[in-house]
Structures are given as C-alpha cells and as structure tokens.
Amino acid sequence: MDGHRLSDEERRALEQIETMLRQDDGLDRRLRTMRLRRIPNAAVCLRYVRHWRPLLVALVLVASTALMVVAVSTLAPGVIAAVAATWLLAVVLTVDMVRAWRRVRRDRIREN
Description:
Protein name: DUF3040 domain-containing protein
Mean pLDDT: 84
Structural class: mainly alpha
Number of helices: 5
Keywords: Membrane, Transmembrane, Transmembrane helix
Shape: elongated
Transmembrane segments: 55-73, 79-98
Largest sheet: none
Number of strands: 0
Radius of gyration: 27 Å
Oligomer: single chain
Low-confidence stretches: none
C-alpha cells in the first residue's frame, strides 16, 4: 500500500459488497475451487491426437517437404523458419508415435 486509506463511506460500501458476494453460494464455491489454468505442454497436446498420429505425421511430413521445395527456390527467411518448425514438429510427432507403439507392444508382452 502506498499510504492511501479508504474513507469510512468507502469501507462501508466495500463491506456491503463483500457481504452480498458471500451470500451467493455458487460464486463462493467457484471462487474456493478456482484453479489457475495451466498452459498445456507437449505431452497434453499429443494425448489428444493419439488416434490420428500416423495421419498427422504423414501430413506434417508432406507439408514440410513442400515448404522445403519452396524454401530452396525462394530462399526467404520466413519460409526457411517454417521448414525448420515443421521438421521439428514432424520429429517430435514421430518420436512420440514410436514411443507409443513401443509402450503398447511392451504392455502386450507383459500380459502374455
């Protein structure tokens, strides 16, 4: 605080507002259980594309190959950055897909 105090009238108004807000059970419950939303990391995002991994990897590889052809012909820095980003995405998706396949295979072997 920088030293400014509320007047008596402002304090009374604030207390009335707080009292009214406390009477709202739904709002009170939401405020008590409120959590900050986390920014999803790569693992959370990849979990949603689980069934579409092979198709997604193929599409990203096709897109990155097309971007590479454009980058070679134009040598534009933006296109080169896009090629790098799509290749990185393709590598991450491929590694994740291989890890998932290995995990499924390992679980099947353990069951038998």
